[in-house]
Amino acid sequence: MPRDTIVSWKTFALFVLFPPLAIVAIIFFPLTLLVFFWLYYRGKQDAMIEEHSEPSS
Fold first, then answer.
1. How far apart are CA 21 and CA 23, in angstroms?
2. What is the pLDDT of residues 19-37, one digit of tens each?
3. Quick one: which of 56, 41, 20 has its CA closest to 28?
4. pTM for the predicted model, two decimal places
């Protein structure tokens, strides 16, 4: 049975959807790492400030 289209809609959907998803992944992966490092250093700073501000008992 001959087809009307050159490619199937599934193949077309892969070509349409995956490039934007790859771009989103490329943008959000470094951003996610940046947020994790920022949270780590903020927590480390808060812990050091709290350690120095505790009164000796």
1. 5
2. 888 888 899 999 999 999 9
3. 20
4. 0.54
